[in-house]
Amino acid sequence: MPERKQNLNVGVIGGGIAGLTAALSLRKFGHEVTIYERYHYAGEVGASLSCASNGGRLLKELGVPLLETRPVILKKLIKRQFDNGEITGVYDLGDYEESFGVPYYNVHRIDIHELLLKCALDENGEGVPCKLLVDHKALNVDTESGKISFENGHEATHDLIVAADGIRSLTREQIGNPPDFKPSTSCCFRCLFNTKDVVAKGLTDFSKNEAIEYWWRGTPGPSGIDKIVMSPCKGGEVISCYCFYPAVKNDLRIGGWNDEASVEELCGTFPDLDAKVLDLFKIAYDIKQWRLYVHQPYEHWQKGKVVMMGDAIHPMMPDQSLGAVTAIEDAFAIGYIFSDRFKFSVPDGLRLYERVRKPRATRIQAASLRARENLNERIGWSSKDNDRPDKLTITEICGYDIKADIEEQAKQMGIL
Ligand SMILES: Cc1cc2nc3c(=O)[nH]c(=O)nc-3n(C[C@H](O)[C@H](O)[C@H](O)COP(=O)(O)OP(=O)(O)OC[C@H]3O[C@@H](n4cnc5c(N)ncnc54)[C@H](O)[C@@H]3O)c2cc1C
């Protein structure tokens, strides 16, 4: 196999968490990167995002100053009874940083997105600053020549194309993965509260617990679908809530996650929920609602000069809170594989990437689906019993050594 040229000219499709982190990682490891984003970013949305240490450690290594987002450092996971909020379980994260190297951060999605963008474009960072082209919706990729064709008529050719174009990826099918998804049993609201409003109104201030808190009915299966997931971010000033409910309630068909919903819809969906949470719902803002879709694992992660990452290739249920950090692992991996440490050709590097990333992401994807209706499958809670080999453990996720995995797999492939 011919050695690759030293500095690759890389096109990244999609400027979400996966695409921006991949751009940053490739930049740091010596490549020239152009990010193509279909929008202007004006519509960036979101609530909280927990950044487990497998993501946090890699962001640190990439020089991302995560503290600028004023994250909340999570101290506990708290499980509560759905109807009265009584605590039924606590998973203590007290020794998390000591065990895994960095804290378990909870950030606001918009803040981490802005920070990654700033780092990718920063004139002063390591390597050549990435270029960002907005209003560039990629329509087609030529896997052999590396050409991307955009809706606006522009075309660009790259040595490597990173497709990080999200759950509705157009690239996925173009590299040989027919769509394979169906509506899940669940829909979800998300909403925010300002802690100062909570306090001013004398409501229960859950931000003080510095925890991810779950209101759950306690039984896996259809009645396990209902779940409220609450956590503070932005230095505790904002409390974010994800509220899952059975899709049969309204058979919602809308696919985006930016569709407005009302306080009445939110409260009306959970009539028997803990009154303290229902009171908070009455002062909620930025209430959105969407249907969740279950994707089966996709077969092909790379073809020719194209490699896929993030939700574009392993969309998962949000119930392990691991989608973004798995994308961050993908993104770090692609930079590291094409770093000076190795001299892999593009085809070898991409085969190695697929070999390392696919089994791990697929395992997380399957465990995320199980956790949709069974909170006991969520890392932390799942660590209690080691009764099944497919059960995800907090150690395998948060303590993952991605560099060692890459080197081991490269040896097994006979390319190192
Ligand atoms: C309710 C919920 C809670 C979650 N909580 C957590 C959590 O706590 N922790 C965690 O780790 N993960 C969490 N996740 C998962 C996480 O949000 C996603 O896995 C992550 O944001 C995926 O990032 P991405 O960059 O792959 O995709 P996206 O964020 O979807 O980004 C894709 C980007 O590509 C652009 N794009 C799309 N098509 C094109 C095109 N054709 N041309 C150019 N650009 C294009 C889009 O505009 C977008 O900017 C949660 C998800 C949900 C739904």
Would you write up a description of this structure?
GO terms for molecular function: FAD binding; monooxygenase activity. The radius of gyration is 21 Å and the shape is globular. Helices cover 30% and strands 25% of the residues. The mean pLDDT is 95. The two termini are 13 Å apart. The chain has helices at residues 17-28, 53-61, 96-100, 109-121, 171-174, 195-200, 263-269, 275-281, 323-337, 346-373, 394-398, 402-413; strands spanning 9-13, 32-36, 48-51, 72-73, 76-81, 87-92, 105-108, 131-133, 138-142, 147-150, 155-157, 160-163, 181-194, 211-216, 227-233, 238-246, 259-260, 285-295, 302-303, 306-308. A hairpin with a 4-residue loop joins β10 and β11 (155-157). With 416 residues, it is of the alpha+beta class. Flavin-adenine dinucleotide binds next to α1, β3, β13 and α9.
The hetero molecules present are:
flavin-adenine dinucleotide
In percent terms, what proportion of residues is strand? Answer: 25-35%
Based on secondary structure, the structural category is alpha+beta
Shape field: globular
Organism: Ogataea polymorpha
Protein name: FAD-binding domain-containing protein
Pfam families: FAD_binding_3
Family: Belongs to the paxM FAD-dependent monooxygenase family.
